[in-house]
């Protein structure tokens, strides 16, 4: 992915890029951004979703992840939850190792079964996606 070299990962050395395709076909990208205060690190997937929402889109059709790890990087639990806000159980997640070219794909429903979403909230905001 074009933005992978922009990943800021001086502490872990794990470079990650992510892209989400919105419903209208527009693609938004992100990279992981680490911090000297380690816990403030943000994953590439959440940066990509935030870029999509910033642009006014609310629905992820599919997500791609590229990392310089030997195996395709599965999205972390926090990123699965964030993706569930804007995707659905069928949303495709494709992950590719930049080191080996190995590719894996999952549906969001298998990565995060029984997701907690706005449907569980008694007073779901009318603006909630989707
Ligand atoms: N990372 C991601 O960008 N996405 C994930 O789903 C898992 C982990 C990043 C965070 C950190 O910068 C590095 O990978 C090692 O955990």
TrEMBL record:
Its cofactor is Zn(2+). Residues 1-119 form the CMP/dCMP-type deaminase domain. Zn(2+) binds at residues 43, 76, 79. The keyword Metal-binding applies. GO terms for biological process: nucleobase-containing small molecule metabolic process; pyrimidine-containing compound metabolic process. It holds the Pfam family dCMP_cyt_deam_1. One of its GO terms (cellular component) is cytosol. It catalyses: cytidine + H2O + H(+) = uridine + NH4(+). The active site is at residue 45. Substrate binds at residues 32-38. Belongs to the cytidine and deoxycytidylate deaminase family. This is cytidine deaminase.
